[in-house]
Design a protein that fits this description.
The chain has 520 residues and is of the alpha/beta class. It is 44% helix and 20% strand. It is built from 15 helices and 19 strands. The longest helix has 60 residues. The chain starts with 11 loop residues before the first strand and ends with a helix.
């Protein structure tokens, strides 16, 4: 029969509003006959009905129409004041056609005549399925509205970040330049202050973008700082009955990732673990470096053997059944009454964007363990502060700097001049082409990708038409990288995220020039 295809939970909670024990048994016999497992609570007055709604938390209400001192219509009104979706089915011998239509208008899900109860089981199945669908639809609608708000915030953040980067760029370059005046301690201290303020502002901009857009931003994450921040966030959330332990194998370990997203992921798992231990227990967060072989990975995962950081969240809570584990990462699936069913899915997405994988082990009564595996790639040895001043000096190489904003352009040219380069300024793509026609090809070009009238990519394409095939440093934004598809292949193209610092600019410039000359 078609109605048997509707999947129900292992057992449903039925609240019966009925003053006749015999009629109640006849109704339940229809559920027994159809193989529907249930728990039942029988009430026949308003106080016990309201108490059952709070304590018993039914999945469905089956109600007679009229009873001494109470009525099914009153029960329906009381229910709808509290819950829009909970199914309510009238089962009555006195329900006429007009009364039935009125009941449906007032919020009843269905009605069954006691003289013809055979339809009850299928009506229960259908009502429960439709209620689940309505709840899922509301959750999806709420998430869509939330996503639209964040999309608007992301657009605003993107525009602000562009303007803020332009404001921060002079602070970083000027601070670096002032720090070079070591013979004047006051100027050196001022330079450090200016640069630190600019760097702090840049971190704020990037954190805002990471939060608003959900975009992964590559940065250096230090394991100890990540877990210490997590510890601070959890201090106000851990009850006294839960003992938390942090076991960090190498706090100084650094890797490429996104601090904010990883912190969000670990926090979500820890809060879930705490909720799984209402009577107390142990929460352990531990880390280890391990080697993963190819046969570790599942068929749907991208296999990449090598060294990984394993971050584990382990609790001694109730654990999960195999049925729950199989549905754990389904959108909107949740075992919590107020959960969205998106937290673990978000964690899995975060780990996936880091090139990693996620594992979970759990058994009822034996707690739960989540393992997050993140690939460890050696960070570049040439960080932006490494290298002596002498190793960053130029030898009179001609560098064409094409930046639209006058303050940034002036600072960049002055900086390069002070380091031994012959820097030439152009405030637009057309001005750069005119300079090349008049002065010949430079040794290297520094281009801003975000120029308005003639973008950096278009300028670069025009430069190649004029015969330039040397090294190029393209200054872009991480949230809106330049589209390089329209460019011909470039052997020595370096994309740097704005705002740039003097040491990193000079190191990249030396690397580009050496590579272009064949010395590297």
């Amino acid at each position: 029969m078609p109605h048997r295809q509707t999947q129900l939970p292992p057992s449903i909670r039925v609240l019966q509003v009925e003053d006749s024990a015999l009629d109640a048994e006849l109704v339940l016999a229809q559920l027994d006959e159809d193989g529907i497992a249930y728990e039942v609570r029988l009430v026949d007055d308003a106080p016990r009905f309201l108490a059952a709604l709070e304590e018993f938390k039914p999945d469905i209400v089956l109600s007679d129409l009229s009873m001494p001192g109470f009525s099914g219509q009153h029960a329906l009104e009381l229910l709808r004041q509290r819950d829009e979706d909970l199914p309510f089915i009238f089962v009555s011998a006195t329900l006429g056609e007009e009364a039935a239509i009125e009941a449906l208008r007032n919020g009843a899900t269905d009605y069954i005549l006691k003289q013809n109860p055979a339809r009850l089981a299928s009506a229960v199945r259908r009502a429960l399925a439709e209620a689940d669908a309505r709840r899922a639809s509301r959750r999806a609608e709420a998430e869509l509205i939330r996503a639209q708000r964040f999309e608007s915030l992301a657009m605003l953040a993107g525009g602000l970040s562009h303007d803020l980067r332009n404001l921060l760029q002079p602070l970083l370059l000027a601070g670096d330049s002032l720090q070079d005046y070591q013979d004047d301690p006051r100027l050196a201290r001022l330079g450090k202050l200016v640069r630190d303020c600019g760097k702090r502002g840049l971190d704020m901009v990037q954190s805002m973008l990471s939060f608003a857009r959900g975009a992964r931003r590559a940065e250096e994450v230090r394991l100890g700082a990540l877990l210490n921040a997590l510890d601070l966030l959890l201090q106000g959330s851990i009850p006294r009955s839960v003992a938390m332990e942090l076991a960090i194998e190498d706090p100084e370990l650094s890797f490429e990732g996104n601090h904010t997203e990883l912190q969000q992921c670990l926090l979500n798992l820890c809060l879930n673990a705490i909720q799984a231990m209402p009577d107390g227990g142990n929460l352990r967060i531990e880390t280890a470096q391990i080697h993963l072989p190819l046969d570790f990975f599942l068929p749907e995962e991208h296999p990449r053997q090598g060294r990984y950081l394993r971050m584990s969240v382990i609790d001694s809570g109730a654990g999960m059944s195999q049925d729950v584990l199989e549905r754990l990462f389904e959108p909107f699936f949740t075992t919590k009454e107020t959960g969205t069913g998106l937290g673990l899915l978000s964690c899995k997405r975060i780990i996936s964007t880091h090139g990693g994988v996620m594992r979970v082990n759990s058994e009822p009564g034996k707690g739960t363990r989540f393992d997050l595996y993140i690939p460890l790639e050696e960070l570049a040895a040439d960080s932006e502060h490494s290298g002596s001043k002498d190793s960053l000096e130029g030898s009179g190489e001609r560098v064409l700097v094409v930046v639209e904003e006058a303050g940034q352009l002036s600072l960049m040219v002055d900086t390069l001049d002070s380091y031994g380069y012959e820097a030439h300024a152009s405030q637009s793509g057309t001005a750069a082409l005119q300079w090349i026609e008049a002065c010949g090809l430079p040794d290297l070009v520094v281009l801003d990708a975000d120029m308005n009238l003639y973008t950096g990519v278009r300028t670069l394409a025009a430069l190649t038409e004029h015969g330039y095939n040397g090294a190029v440093i393209l200054l872009g934004r991480p949230e809106a990288p330049p589209d390089l598809h329209e460019l011909p292949p470039f052997d020595h193209l370096y994309v740097m995220n704005k705002p740039i610092t003097t040491p990193l600019l000079l190191k990249t410039l030396r690397k580009a020039l050496l590579a272009a000359s064949g010395e590297q």
